[in-house]
Amino acid sequence: MPHKPSLGSLTVNAGAPAPKNGEAFRKGPEFASTFHLSGEVGSQSYQYGRFGQPTWTALEQGIATLEGGETIIFPSGMSAAAAILTSLVKPGDTILLPSDGYAPVRYYTEQYLVRFGVHLRTVATADIDSFDFASIDIALLETPSNPMLDTFDISAAADKLHKQGGILAIDNTTLTFLGQQALALGADISMCADTKAVNGHSDVVFGHVATQNAQLCSKMRDWRKYSGNIPGPMETWLVHRSLSTLDVRLERMCNNALLLAEALSSHAKVKTVRYPGLPSDPSYLVAQRQQKLFGFIISFELASKEAADRFLQACELVYEATSFGGVHSTAERRARWGTDKIADGVIRFSVGCERPDDLLNDVMHALEQV
Ligand SMILES: Cc1ncc(COP(=O)(O)O)c(C=O)c1O
């Protein structure tokens, strides 16, 4: 039997045109609002730019192969989250969100959905395994959570929700489909802010959802069409171009992250380190079982706000910035946003593709300045 290529290998050409003599390997972005459309309106593949267009289709087909479900792309991670929450809930439904997840998803729900009779409940990610889902209609949860990297068992949560007809959506941004196959684990929807690792070059804001459920898919696709939350062809093409190197980038990023996490965890100036790949980490057992990668984000605590600021200023290879998942290492003192309940000295570190020895040197040198 021929060897079945891994998802990592499939990523290289996912969504690219089939090989044909004389044709280019890749197509460029197609800029179109209007398509020739004569006669009755029916099954024509493209009709109007807000409904669908070829550059979207190529990327959606590419990601669908890797997610294992039909994919819809969006102009940001937030619009992907909004598509799930807005198109799938009805008045009286209860949404469950993580209390320690990406805060704007909670703000969106509070500001735009609760006033239409939707209820919001929250739960800390570390408490999800023992949570009673009885009153929940739809849950949009993150594992590992961000920034503190707690985990929960996706299959167990999906089983509990499905018993009562509920929907489980996973925000898979911190790992991507190569790091965690949310649909195969039982989630109904896998969502990702492709702004982060999938695009990975800090130059595009983007998102997608994927699902095997045709009904959910059609509701979210209609929401995109009628709300006009559509991605531009240039951004779509840039994300598709980046997709080809996702596997190789993640490999370097995650290997670097483990090396750094190990070094940080035995450093005298570091109070605590969270990284799901450390056997001592509370997330290790779940991560080892359900993740394909341990990830590229590390959170660690220094003695104070001042110590964390000094560390960030002393880094040379590591840029101070919010966001994560880029080829370049970035870090920030997360409490500066006031959105997460975390200590003042906590650094969220997104490990990039620099050479491991250089990165380790830079971080150890910066810690000496603390
Ligand atoms: C886990 C998570 N989900 C969703 C989002 C939203 O993505 P975007 O900024 O592309 O709207 C972010 C952004 O930081 C995120 O970290």
Brief description of this entry?
The chain has 370 residues and is of the alpha/beta class. The protein has twelve helices and twelve strands. The protein has helices at 7-13, 54-67, 77-88, 103-113, 154-163, 176-179, 214-227, 233-243, 246-265, 284-290, 305-314, 356-368, and strands at residues 70-74, 94-98, 119-123, 138-142, 167-171, 189-192, 207-211, 272-274, 297-301, 319-320, 330-333, 346-350.
Keywords, separated by commas or semicolons:
370 residues; alpha/beta; Aspartate Aminotransferase, domain 2; Aspartate Aminotransferase, domain 1; 2 domains; 7-stranded mixed beta sheet; 5-stranded mixed beta sheet; 12 helices; 12 strands; globular; binds pyridoxal-5'-phosphate
Strands, helices and their partners?
Layout: H1 7-13, H2 54-67, E1 70-74, H3 77-88, E2 94-98, H4 103-113, E3 119-123, E4 138-142, H5 154-163, E5 167-171, H6 176-179, E6 189-192, E7 207-211, H7 214-227, H8 233-243, H9 246-265, E8 272-274, H10 284-290, E9 297-301, H11 305-314, E10 319-320, E11 330-333, E12 346-350, H12 356-368
Rg over CA atoms, rounded to whole Å, is: 21 Å
Cα separation of the termini = 57 Å
Class inferred from helices and paired strands: alpha/beta
Low-confidence parts: none
Multimerization state: single chain
CATH class of the largest domain reads Alpha Beta
Which word captures the global form? globular
Under CATH, the topology of the largest domain is which?
Answer: Aspartate Aminotransferase, domain 2
Percent helix range:
25-40%
Residue-averaged pLDDT, rounded?
A: 97
Bound molecule types? pyridoxal-5'-phosphate
CATH architectural label of the largest domain: 3-Layer(aba) Sandwich
* CATH level 4 superfamily of the largest domain: Type I PLP-dependent aspartate aminotransferase-like (Major domain)
Question: How many strands?
Answer: 12
- Count of distinct structural domains: 2
Total helices: the number is: 12
The biggest beta sheet reads:
7 strands, mixed
